[in-house]
Design a protein that fits this description.
Blueprint lengths: L7 H8 L6 E6 L4 H15 L3 E8 L4 H6 L7 H18 L7 E6 L8 H14 L3 E7 L7 H16 L5 E5 L4 H7 L16 E6 L4 H10 L1 H4 L13 H9 L2 E6 L3 H7 L1
Parallel strand pairs: 1-2, 1-4, 2-3, 4-5
Antiparallel strand pairs: 5-7, 6-7
The chain binds zinc ion (ZN).
Zinc ion binds next to loops.
Amino acid sequence: MTPPVMGSWTEWYLRTERSAGTVLVFAPHPDDEVIACGGTIARLAAEGARVRIVFATDGAMSHSAVLGIHRDPAPAELRLIRRGEARAAAKELGLPEDAVHFLDFPDTALAGHLAAFRARVLDVLRVHPGVSEVYLPHEVRELNADHRLTGETVLACLAELDLTPLIHRYVVWDERTEQEFAFVNRNPPAAGAGVAERLVTVDITEQLPRKQAAFRAHRTQVELYAPGQTRPVVPEPFQQRVFTTPVEEFWITEPAAVRLEVE
Ligand SMILES: [Zn+2]
């Protein structure tokens, strides 16, 4: 994450009245929802918002792709284990059982299933026409292919359906993340990007214990889970940041009229 920037834009964001309606969080893999916006999800849930988390991929390749561990657990086993972890994490954030939705596309390979993914995202959005806020991976700043494609696809689907929720773009996979994981899975950047945007910093001090518990629920990612595993899938320095950082950051775009007002 980049250092927190507090300024007029953040103040505007925090002042803005937002109804506690339906909030959709799109996560490329189980655990991204906690890393990027676990504190925010906990706060929204406590305020009475109807938060739903949509996982794009099954997360089955974490051990195989990042650590070179292909059995115990094998990808097919991990897929099921990580579903359970995602449900447990959502519960820690204060969400009901039915708040998580698994689209189940293959981890690390979303690029090969874009048409089907797009169709499933449209299905999800059609069920929530009154969605007021959406959280998704930044379609340009994210380097990881599954992340970037999740962001690109959700944005395209929102536009197609003429839905205009307040969009929060988050960044999990920047260059530091790639270095710490020692794992790179990129795709070419989206063409034509370059919207005006501002970074807002949200204080999650009160929600940090819930975020920590939710992150711990993703046991396969934060523990030495497999026999012979010598490092966790999520590297220790990265974990420490998630466990201790009392803010979450989002890139926000707003109509020009609002930008003028706060500048
Ligand atoms: Zn991810």
